[in-house]
Each structure stands twice: as C-alpha cells, then as structure tokens.
Design a protein that fits this description.
mainly alpha, two-stranded antiparallel ribbon, 4% strand
Length: 173
C-alpha cells in the first residue's frame, strides 16, 4: 500500500465514523439505522481492492467499538459485531478494479449481507438470552437483526448507486 491509499483509507474510516453518528433509528439492545455509513468503506474497497478494504473495515470496527455505545464486552461479540462485521465490507473489492456498475453494486450488496450474517451469528450465540421465552435464538436473531440491517442496507445501496460511477472512476494514483 502506498501513502495515498493509506490516507484515502483513513479518510473513509473517518467519514464512516461521522456518518455513523447520524442515527435515524436505534434498537434497544444494539443496532441502528444510519445515514449511509457503510458507503465510504464500500467505495474504498471498490477502488483499492479487497485487502485494503478489509483493513479499513477492521480499523473502523475497532474505532467504532472504542468510541461508540457498547452493548457487550464479551470477546466474541467484539469480534463478530465490530471487527469481522465491518472487515467483511472489504469483500466489495472482489468486484475487481473499476468494475461495471451493476457488478460493483451486487458485490457490495453481498458484502453488506455478509455483515448482516456476522450480526445474526452474534445475536444467536452471544445475545441468545434476550430471545423471548420459548423462541429459537436463531429465529430471534434473524428477525431482530433483519429489522435493522435490511433498511440500513437499502439506504447504503441507494446512496452507493448514486455515487458509484463518479467515485470509482477517480484516478487511482
């Protein structure tokens, strides 16, 4: 990685933090709908590749955990809800360098769905005690996380679709 890539990654992490502070809806046990906060990390991964995107996502996840609201200090929750969940957004880089619009958007959607899977795993494993009596923890986690993540994914996908062609075509020097 060159200096320009590192600086661009740092700016995308900072912008993601700022957008993450704009919350439209907050769930009582964690999870929120934000103002397209995943878009900077996704665009960075689409421009700079998978590994750079994964590193930026992990850096954001660590910062988000350190300065954000903490719903669990259990190590598995930290790994699944913060580090891995945002690191997988770097998978958007699998679309390749300067991917066609729809290929990039589909791969970004896949990366956001992988983030949702991390949250579902965390919910079913770490937060199973919050499931209503007699309810399967997996079903509870899927329904709880889907109620927050699907609208959040939709917002991010719409904003990414609007910005995609202009940002991905910027020079990559």
């Amino acid at each position: 990685m060159n200096t320009r890539t590192i600086v661009e990654g740092g700016l995308c992490v900072a912008l993601t933090l700022i957008l993450g502070w704009i919350t439209f809806w907050k769930m009582p046990q964690g999870g929120s709908i934000h103002a397209a906060h995943m878009v900077p990390l996704l665009l960075f991964a689409l421009r700079r590749g998978t590994w750079a995107g994964i590193l930026a996502g992990i850096a954001y996840g660590a910062l988000h955990f350190l300065i954000g609201a903490k719903y669990s200090l259990q190590p598995l929750s930290i790994l699944l809800d913060y580090l891995l969940a945002y690191g997988v957004l770097g998978l958007a880089g699998l679309a390749g360098t300067y991917p066609a619009k729809y290929k990039g958007l589909l791969v970004a959607l896949g990366a956001m769905l992988c983030r949702m899977i991390c949250s579902i795993l965390s919910g079913a494993i770490v937060f199973a005690a919050y499931a209503p009596a007699g309810m399967n923890p997996w079903l509870y986690s899927i329904s709880y996380n889907s109620s927050v993540m699907l609208p959040d994914i939709a917002i991010n996908l719409i904003v990414l679709w609007i910005l995609y062609q202009k940002v991905v075509r910027l020079p990559r020097t």
